[in-house]
Amino acid sequence: MSWKTAYRSMYYEGAPEPEDLDLAWSETALLVIDVQNTYLETRAREDVPPDEQAKWDRWVPFNKRMREIVIPNTRAMIDTFRGNGLEVMFARIACLTQDGRDRSLSQKKPGWNYLLMPRGTEESRLVPELEPQGDEIVITKTTDSALTGTNLRLILRNMEIENVVACGIFTDQCISSTVRSLADESYDVVVLEDCCAAGTDELHHKELEIINNIYCHVMSSRELRDMMKLGE
Q1: What are phi and psi of 166, to 5 degrees?
Q2: Residues 177-213 pLDDT 10s
Q3: In a domain, 64, yes or no
Q4: Has residue 189 been placed in a domain?
Q5: Which CATH number does the domain housing residue 95 bear?
Q6: What CA–CA distance (Å, rounded) separates 164 from 21?
Q7: Secondary structure of the chain in the HEC alphabet?
Q8: 21 in a structural domain
Q9: Does a structural domain hold residue 170?
Q10: Total structural domains in the chain?
Q11: Is the whole model's pTM more than 0.70, yes or no?
Q12: Which tens digits make up the pLDDT trace of 1-48?
């Protein structure tokens, strides 16, 4: 199944297949979102307190997908964009204050999404495999959307970028929020399904169905390379 028929929700059942996208190299940027140290488990299970082991177990599939699929595929796509002279950009969650008073409300609420990562901390850093190079732009945000509350909109306009290829985590949260914001600003958006992950595969696939065709086009990194005629 190709990107033209995959990840279809009930809204697009039976709809005509979309045409190939016209993604001019000079107008297209890769945006890697929130692949940060804090989200990747490094402790062995035996080092986790007994009352936290069930939670550790729940995240095993996510960590496996990140290590075996998302990070390698994203690194390969970064290398492809760099090798062909296309823009590579990054977004990460990090607050400007030590106590996080500048965070958005969603990051202050108790629960899983509570985030306190002052800029400069190791946990807020992008994972080593995806480190920016040279003058590649890194957007720091305290919101789910990389467009809301940052100057990314202005940067994209100044650089005459019209098409954004999005990847990273989490598909159902920061990826989805960024994609919707970009779509509302009339950017053409592509989401690379094999360069993203949610907490579970079920959430990942369902969110791709929700945003596909309406706010973006979902495809694999291989399909994007072929469409844009990008060398490896």
Answers
A1: -105, 145
A2: 999 999 999 999 999 999 999 999 999 999 999 999 9
A3: no
A4: yes
A5: 3.40.50.850
A6: 12
A7: CCCCCCCCCHHHCCCCCCCCCCCCHHHEEEEEECCEHHHCCCCCHHHCCHHHHHHHHHCHHHHHHHHHHHHHHHHHHHHHHHHCCCEEEEEEECECCCCCCCCCHHHHCCCCCCCCCECCCHHHCECHHHCCCCCCEEEEECCCCCCCCCCHHHHHHHCCCCEEEEEEECHHHHHHHHHHHHHHCCCEEEEEEEEEECCCHHHHHHHHHHHECCCEEEECHHHHHHHHCCCC
A8: no
A9: yes
A10: 1
A11: yes
A12: 799 999 999 999 889 999 999 999 999 999 999 999 999 977 888 888
C-alpha span between 31 and 65 (Å, rounded): 19
**Neighbouring C-beta atoms of residue 149, cutoff 10 Å:** 14
Distance CA 133, CA 131 (A): 7
CA–CA distance, 151 with 134 (Å, rounded to integer):
20
